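User: Can you help me understand a structure? I only have the sequence.
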Amino acid sequence: MLMMIIVVFFFFLLSFFLSFFLSLFLFFFLKLFFFSYILFFYFFIIISTYYFIIICLWWWT
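Assistant: Let's start by predicting it. Here is the structure, written out as tokens:
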């Protein structure tokens, strides 16, 4: 159970940093200032949902 919590927390942090760096990349290279804030939350929701589905599938099998 503790291992499962650690794995979920790790993937949550990983998805946060991935979305953060993706939005930073778009901000600096494409100069999309306002759009990068929206994309940060968009990427964060998509990546964290993706990891959550993977963890749930791994946990149930």
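Now, to help you interpret it: The mean pLDDT is 74. Residues 2-60 form one domain. Let me know which part you'd like to focus on.
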